[in-house]
Amino acid sequence: MIKHALSVTREQDFAAWYQSVIAEADLAEESGVRGCMVIRPWGYGIWERIQRLLDDRIKATGHENCYFPLFIPLSYFEKEAEHVDGFAKEMAVVTHHRLIQKDGRLVPDPEAKLEEPLVVRPTSETVIGAAFSRWVQSWRDLPVLINQWANVVRWEMRTRMFLRTTEFLWQEGHTAHASEAEAREETLKMLEVYREFAETCLAMPVVAGEKPENERFPGAVATYSIEAMMQDGKALQAGTSHFLGTTFSSAQDIKFQNANGELELAQTTSWGVSTRMIGGVIMVHGDDDGLRVPPRIAPWQIVIVPMLRDNDEDAALIDYCKALQADLAKLSALGEPVRALLDLKPAKAATKRWGWVKKGAPIVVEVGGRDMAGGNVSVIRRDRLYREDGKLDSAVVAKGDFAGGAAAMLEEIQAALHDQARARLDANIRRDVMDFAALEAAFAGEKPGWVEVNWSKPAAADLDKVAERLKALKLTFRNVPEGAAPAEGACIFTGAPAVERILVARAY
Amino acid sequence: MIKHALSVTREQDFAAWYQSVIAEADLAEESGVRGCMVIRPWGYGIWERIQRLLDDRIKATGHENCYFPLFIPLSYFEKEAEHVDGFAKEMAVVTHHRLIQKDGRLVPDPEAKLEEPLVVRPTSETVIGAAFSRWVQSWRDLPVLINQWANVVRWEMRTRMFLRTTEFLWQEGHTAHASEAEAREETLKMLEVYREFAETCLAMPVVAGEKPENERFPGAVATYSIEAMMQDGKALQAGTSHFLGTTFSSAQDIKFQNANGELELAQTTSWGVSTRMIGGVIMVHGDDDGLRVPPRIAPWQIVIVPMLRDNDEDAALIDYCKALQADLAKLSALGEPVRALLDLKPAKAATKRWGWVKKGAPIVVEVGGRDMAGGNVSVIRRDRLYREDGKLDSAVVAKGDFAGGAAAMLEEIQAALHDQARARLDANIRRDVMDFAALEAAFAGEKPGWVEVNWSKPAAADLDKVAERLKALKLTFRNVPEGAAPAEGACIFTGAPAVERILVARAY
User: Which of A117, A505, B223, B410 is the most buried (most CB within 10 A)?
Assistant: First the structure.
């Protein structure tokens, strides 16, 4: 039996396994500040890769980055009732701007109470809408296509690292358009950017589609999401794109003169993904030895570990490894220069090996004196860690051969991780559930996956009733998949004629 | 007489000119949130370039990026008295985590008052120190070399865009070391990184040196700065590096077992630069036509403006410009691919030309029908905007010749901006002031520049007295320049024997 690197396996306790990967891969840790985490270098390095690759796509589709204030005056929220209802329960509020000493303790200075409290942004539609109203006068000023990378705060009662934290990092795109058609096109364009990004860069296939009314962003006319399947069968909403219609343009007075000289309200959109994606990467690609990072988002794709012995041979061994690192740095894989690290930290080689396995570096190259003598290196591929006999699969290959094939190997690993996740997603969506009892039965077992059913798209109170029934089973609607088969027969919830097919799942 | 693009010149009113550049170059604007600005795409694009180039240097010197919480519990600050004294007067305090409706208004919910108020980070020594105390156990864990890019908040009473805003963006490096010597070396290494970065990338020569005791960061044993000279002769502190000794390691309990098995306190450092640097770039390189952005940090280095006429020739003109853009994109200048934009926005060509002049794009290329017919382009260099006769210097050159020389032209512009700033700095530091009356006289005129004087380095109350005398003249100590001549004679403040030379200036 394989002795894995983690003390808890996915089978034993998925939630504990998740926490264990985060700790053992040095991704993040509790900060001592309620609900806020410290993102450690390996976790933050993955976020930097995500930022770089997604930012390229956001810019390639014509958007520019800006930066808007962290603080939003309460009065901005009061302008849009539905929006504030959706967020008021979970906002951090700044009420004072100075501290004083009192009885030996620091306390907010009563003399420095703000006249109007400030909210720490949970999202920026209101403050960006106010800017849009200044920027947009004429149809010539449209579209406005902007994005920001920022931290936001939502006061969550139950937090879980990366998935739901009080503070998190994200990007939020905000656009304004002259017509509804153009704004709807933008909403779907960015949904597709997210889908392609998740699939290509995170090796995480997703289902893109429209959320039902009860799952819409507060203030949105339509909300779309990408949903990824975790290894426990649950869904993770990994990105959303909203068509906001004129909700915010009427609240914030974003008006323009059209070509006929008439005043119109602009049509706006917003869309975002966050550090939550890293939680998705962990639960899609992690295994019982830790994380497996897809090469495109790995801060280091190849880690070279020299087996140093604190003796005279070390210098030659380090030179040998440096030469390999230099050869690798000349390569290009997946459209970018290869990122290879030489790990010279003072620790035992075996400790370092397992450290990098747990972190999920795609390729770990160990080099000992015997390897060097033979002109070789020992190569561990993170996507194929063990041989059939359960032993660690460390292959001795000629150094030149390894360097010559390293780029292709990284591309293979990226594809392999994607294909495994794709197969899992495809195998775990049931489409044969034709009534509510069957739905209940489908979710009675372990790791139930997702179920796609026919429904009649009830609205308002009728929809709430259906959502309540699902909630009793700890289920939610995920989305109406793009490209799903046409609905047929009766809605499994209402019995009325079905109009589309919708995904039901347990979710994070 | 030249009719400049801005309505106010540097000579007329430097402060109004500064605001005018920010507005006319679309760098930033007031947000409606007290003391917070909106950084617009051109301003944020400059910040992204600064981030990219500085981040490369921070990583090349062995540091890794992380992310720490925005919120810091009050109790963390209480551990370090000097530090909290330095910041308590200007901190935003979160006291509630929910809003409710009351009399039709949103108010903080009294039921959701935090037991311990949270401070919005003004800087992160305390929360990062707490993490270091978890991370550091043995000498093998040292050094810890980390950095974060983040927003911070200091509740400033008088704000000025980029220079002093309630919220600003920065990077803060934090390191822990086993020995004082190594921590001091790190402090100076990062000071040098900042000096070289300012000089090379911002084309902004600076004076690096140690701050006197009264200008130290709260809690630091030694503070170093880089100081840049603005065109009005004032100094701008553009970056700081602090040796913190054991101030924070004793407050936060950052201890390690040394090689002999004994427990020691770690020695820490911190260092940062912020969006303030953009204010420096404006005041060093701006002129009466707006900003001039050094090519290394220009979001777009070359902007191509086709002179469209809404007729049949437009398509051919756009193709001609696209071909040029493609040729330019193949070039490398200043070590990176050239960044060339084709501006197809619906506006008059002259409006676009002056827009890009005001924004400070290094090269603006206009292409009209006549240019195209002759195989030419019309080139405007932002560093040489006018001919001797006062007319705009737009040079008609063969398209191929322009593309062939564009990389060299960008390098020339980078060097020219640097050399102008260097000459100004060198010409405006007086070193012949030998007594206080002469100092007073030196600062009596307009645009007085800086004065470097002999001083005896008084401490504590004696230093405060000197600082008070300077303050009455609106002067401050800047730093003791690295590589200054040896002190000689008497201190101009105390009459005691001088021990070093120090810079005195008006400052932002």
Answer: A505
Residues B86 and B210 in one domain: yes
Tell which residue, B424, B438, B426, B432, has the closest CA to residue B473.
B438
Asked whether residue B7 is assigned to any structural domain, the reply reads: no
**C-alpha to C-alpha distance for B205 and B208, rounded to whole angstroms:** 10
Which residue, B483, B474, B464, is CA-closest to B439?
B474
pLDDT tens-digit map of A2-38: 889 999 999 999 999 999 999 999 999 999 898 999 9
| pLDDT tens per residue across span A217-261 | 999 999 999 999 999 999 999 999 999 999 999 999 999 999 999
**Least CB-CB distance to B39: which of A38, A66, A108?**
A66
Residue A394: domain span:
300-412
pLDDT of residue A82: 77
Same domain, A32 and A67: yes
Please report which helix (H) or strand (E) contains residue B396, including its range. Answer: strand B394-398
Both B123 and B259 in one domain: the answer is: yes
Taking the Cβ of residue A423 and every Cβ of chain B, the question of whether any pair is shorter than 8 Å is answered with no
Of A269, A53, A35, the residue nearest A147 (C-alpha)? A269
Q: Do A71 and B33 touch (CB under 8 A)?
A: yes
Shortest CA distance from B80: residue in chain A: A106
The last residue of a domain, from among A377, A412, A447: A412
CATH classification of the domain holding A334: 3.40.50.800
Residue pair A243/A184 in contact by the 8 Å Cβ criterion: yes
Residue A433's pLDDT band (cuts 50, 70, 90)? very high
Environment class of B447 (CB within 10 Å of its CB; exposed 0-12, middle 13-18, buried 19+): middle
Domain limit, last residue, from A352, A381, A412: A412
Is there a domain that residue A9 lies in?
Answer: no
Distance from CA of A189 to the nearest CA of B (A): 21
| Within-domain flag for A26 | yes
Which amino acid, residue B326? A
Chain B contact for A344 (CB, 8 A cutoff): no
In chain B, the residue whose alpha carbon lies closest to the alpha carbon of A299 is B64
Contacts of B69 (CB under 8 A, 6+ apart): A31, A33, A36, A37, A38, A167, B121, B127
The pLDDT tens digits for A196-221 are 999 999 999 999 999 999 999 999 99
Q: Tell me, what DSSP letter sits at residue A307?
A: -
Answer whether residue A481 shows pLDDT above 80. yes
Residue B220 has a CB neighbour count (10 Å cut-off) of 27
The residue-averaged pLDDT of A66-77 equals: 94
- Do residues B271 and B401 share a domain? no
Task: Specify the number of domains making up chain B.
Answer: 3
- pLDDT confidence of residue B427: 97
Contact B182, B165 (CB under 8 A): no
- B132 touches A at CB < 8 Å: no
B396 and B479 in a single domain? The answer is no
> In chain B, which stretches have pLDDT less than 70?
none
Q: What is the 3-state secondary structure (H, E, C) of A31-81?
A: CCCCCCEEECHHHHHHHHHHHHHHHHHHHHCCCEECECCCEEEHHHHHCCH
